[in-house]
């Protein structure tokens, strides 16, 4: 009992699109897509027509001719996500937010008790889910899907089982293994397109059930120790990782998809300047410093490139970050027919430091 954990994974339903429908009653019940050149989030009404995230908006409109396109309010969405996180922090001590609209919560202390029956345990979980969902909806007027598991990965899979506004509970490891057995193995978090292609080509596998035929050593030889062991363990319900309460933010970033191609270098530079200003404001509010600056660019043919530079010393100086952003930008050979441009900062620290040199270079 003492090692048993109960994890909850919440995932806000079509988060960006749901915010737009909440704030604009005329959009409720309508097929909408948030984005510009590319779909960022589609409402569930749009998803019925095959509209998906990361799809070119032109393709989305062909699938759904009456699709309503909404230009994104990215900063606002992130502020709404922070409100949800702050609500959760008021009632949960152990949490890990993996993005603006989802996260893991350790709810063990609210559920487990000595000498309780399985039925009693499940009843307590269902009551907790009901209260949690009502709490979020009452304060945000937004719905979420919830998954319960004995591990983070099982809770994540459970939250995808009954979308939108539903919940699913894995009662134990056997329940989990039986559930995933005949599913396509893309149901497993961490098995992306490239891994899927290798498993398909080298092992002829398409379902989770076929992965059990591959030995641990074979998986390690093909994918390396970390990923190979992960695949072997996760399908058996044996992959466990703790909630990282002290998880540091990996990056801050802003990007914009233009309504039409931009061919003026000056306009792109000014957009970068505005993005750097927003990032530095955030860094100074949080009293954080960065070492790596990355510029991202995407063209009208949807090809994209990034360029990064890592500094010796941390900084949150706006002039320096903009200067490095321009250096990165200058390395792009092509600077016209631009659909998207953005900047990201990473290697984030809570204090400034200077890299000490062991050898005097003077």
User: End-to-end distance, in Å?
Assistant: 63 Å
Low-confidence stretches: 355-362
**Share in β-strands:** 15-25%
Give the % helix: 40-55%
Order of helices and strands: EHEEHHEHEEHHEHEHHHHHEHEEHE
Q: Note the total helix count.
A: 14
Number of strands: 12
Shape label? globular
Strand order of the largest sheet: 5-6-1-7-8
Radius of gyration: 23 Å
The helix-and-strand class reads alpha+beta
Mean pLDDT: 90
The biggest beta sheet, please? 5 strands, mixed
Describe the structure.
The chain has 362 residues and is of the alpha+beta class. It has helices at residues 15-23, 44-47, 57-63, 74-91, 108-111, 118-140, 152-159, 173-180, 193-203, 208-211, 216-223, 225-234, 265-286, 318-330, and strands at 7-12, 32-35, 39-42, 68-70, 95-99, 102-106, 144-149, 167-169, 251-262, 289-299, 304-315, 338-349. The strands form 3 sheets. The protein has a 5-stranded mixed sheet. It has a 4-stranded antiparallel sheet with strand order 9-12-10-11, covered by helices on one side. Strand 5 (95-99) and strand 6 form a beta hairpin. Helix 13 runs antiparallel to helix 14. The chain is globular. It starts with 6 loop residues before the first strand and ends in a 13-residue tail after the last strand. Mean pLDDT is 90; it is low at 355-362.
């Amino acid at each position: 009992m003492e090692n048993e954990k109960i994890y909850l994974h919440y995932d806000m339903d079509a988060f960006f699109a749901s915010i737009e429908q909440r704030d604009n009653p005329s959009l409720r019940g309508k097929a909408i897509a948030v984005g510009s050149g590319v779909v960022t989030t589609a409402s569930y009404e749009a998803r019925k027509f095959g509209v998906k995230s990361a799809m070119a908006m032109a393709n989305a409109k062909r699938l759904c001719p009456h699709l309503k396109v909404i230009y994104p309010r990215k900063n606002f969405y992130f502020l709404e996500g922070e409100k949800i996180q702050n609500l959760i922090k008021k009632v949960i001590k152990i949490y890990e937010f993996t993005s603006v609209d989802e996260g893991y919560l350790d709810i063990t202390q609210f559920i487990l008790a000595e000498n309780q029956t399985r039925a009693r345990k499940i009843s307590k979980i269902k009551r907790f889910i009901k209260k949690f969902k009502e709490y979020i909806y009452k304060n945000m007027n937004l719905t979420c899907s919830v998954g319960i598991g004995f591990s983070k990965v099982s809770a994540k899979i459970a939250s995808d089982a009954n979308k939108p506004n539903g919940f699913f509970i894995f009662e134990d490891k056997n329940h989990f293994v039986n559930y995933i057995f005949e599913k396509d193995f893309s149901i497993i978090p961490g098995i992306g397109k490239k891994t899927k292609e290798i498993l398909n080509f080298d092992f002829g596998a398409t379902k989770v059930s076929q992965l059990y035929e591959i030995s641990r050593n074979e998986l390690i030889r093909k994918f390396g120790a970390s990923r190979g062991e992960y695949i072997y363990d996760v399908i058996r319900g044996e992959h466990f990782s703790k909630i990282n309460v002290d998880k540091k933010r990996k990056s801050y970033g802003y990007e914009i998809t233009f309504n039409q191609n931009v061919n003026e270098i000056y306009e792109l530079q000014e957009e970068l300047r505005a993005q750097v200003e927003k990032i530095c404001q955030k860094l100074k509010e949080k009293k954080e410093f960065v070492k790596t600056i990355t510029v991202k660019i995407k063209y009208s043919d949807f090809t994209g490139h990034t360029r990064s530079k890592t500094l010796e010393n941390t900084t949150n100086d706006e002039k320096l970050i903009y200067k490095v952003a321009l250096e990165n930008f200058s390395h792009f050979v092509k600077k016209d027919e631009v659909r998207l441009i953005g900047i990201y900062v990473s290697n984030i620290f809570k204090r400034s430091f200077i890299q000490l040199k062991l050898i005097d270079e003077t």
